[in-house]
Amino acid sequence: MQENAPNNNEETCEELGLFKIIQKKRGHRFTIDSVCLSDFVLPVKSTDKVIDIGTGSCVIPMLLLQKSRVRKIVGVEVQDSLIEIAKKNVEINNISDKVSLLRMDYKNLKTVFGKGSFDLVVSNPPYVRRGCGRMSDKKERAIARMELIGSLKELVDISSYLINRNGRICYIYPVARFKEVLSVLEMNGLNVGRLRFIHSKRSKSSELFMVEASFKEKNFIVGEPLFLSQK
Fold first, then answer.
1. pTM of the entire predicted model
2. What tens digit of pLDDT does each residue of 83-103 get?
3. Domain of residue 27, CATH code
4. Domain extent for 88
5. N or C end of the chain, less CB within 10 A?
6. How many domains is the chain built from?
């Protein structure tokens, strides 16, 4: 078996546009949320410096490389099991010249990067506050879904540190946390530039929303609703 080939007993290898993506059969796997978010952040310029906080299997960097001309993306992941999968995906797709991976707690990124180092911070973070809801008995899934490593406030704090004065932050969160997300962004001196709400079906209320924020003062735009199904 090649060093970076999937372990057929524990992993899958599927197409992701022009790339291949290895994932665990059991454990955290990417969802349509990451695909929606990668579309929302566009356009991304070739000169933009991008960082993906909580990169998981490296799906958002892989999508952005196909949807834009971006040349440099940093993926940050705290879980050993996921960073190993991300490394495999970088290697099998020959994108190590464009994607750099860091295995670390994002709250410590100030020790690695200076203030204002990036043009775009993107994150598909854990949706559930610690202590709320049912926690998965699988550690990998639990950390990916619940704020066990860091809170919304900590994510916004590091994001506002990392972007430059003309930079952007893009997140996806449940609508149930809409007011909280906007409040925390405002407390960090960030202004909402765009919003887009996601509906699983036309007949259902929005369950998720995507937000773009920056230090620029401007009236925000609410994009057309995104319907994942036309039913």
1. 0.90
2. 999 999 999 999 999 999 999
3. 3.40.50.150
4. 11-169
5. N
6. 1
